[in-house]
Batch of 3 targets.
Target 1
Amino acid sequence: MNQKQELIKLINASNIEESDKKEWEILIGAAPEEYAGGLLELFMKFPDEIGWFTDIYKRKKQAFSMMESDKKKASEVLRIIFQEEKERLDELSKGADLN
């Protein structure tokens, strides 16, 4: 099984909504293998965080969709989301080696 298939299997075993699982499957299918590998490593170490990362992904998607109508506001929202994501990853990495 390749990394993308393993990642989809892991996500499908999670407790997120079916619609979110389908969205992840589309994203993973279109993503480079390296991206899928990074997510697989992260989700294998922190399977309980798949829901949190799903929420972050949805928020990023919404912010990017705002770019056409309000680039300044979208950029600020993305900055906040990326900072929140960085802080969460830092918090997670304190207890586990992410490499």
Note: The chain has a mean pLDDT of 92.
Target 2
Amino acid sequence: MLKIKIGDNDLIIRIFSSNTERTLEINKGLYDDKYWQFLVFTENTVFLEGADSVKILAVNNVMIQIEIKSVKQRLRDLTNNADVLAFGIDAIPKGKERDFLEKLL
């Protein structure tokens, strides 16, 4: 069994089975209107674990791909500006830094 703490991370999980692909987005632990603490992998099952419940995501899957969004990727999404990836803080308009920092936190 593998247990990954979700925390404040934004995750994109792609689940591939023999002929389908599902994409799930977990934003700061929130998925399906509930907060989850762990992403758990067992031999045949992938599920989310919360304080008082479990949500099965996949059974007998072929492959799971997990993408964890970095701060730069999250800023790119907030600003709709790909230059953030290359230039960082210099790509954020002057005076808007605090607004974006507030949204990240």
Note: The chain has three helices and nine strands.
Target 3
Amino acid sequence: MKEVLNALVQAMGSQAIALGTVADNVAALKQRLARQFPEMADELKAQIHEEQEKSRAEVYELQVNLAKLREAVAQLPEAKPAAKRKPGKAA
């Protein structure tokens, strides 16, 4: 069970990294649009700044929560192997 929980936390971390990459790509696209369309540049730059600030706060919170999850999983007791039953004769 502990391995499953660790894998889950790892998968969540990987998904967070992937989402961060997508957010970076969106910001880069908006920067290119701002250069190509000067009339929209101020609005796009403001959006980029706002989204980056929000993203930083969310990423920090996610990192803290993942660390807490890792710590909680580490505190779980190790699973005890199940007792093997001896095959018996059916009545």
Note: The CA atoms of residues 16 and 52 lie 15 Å apart.
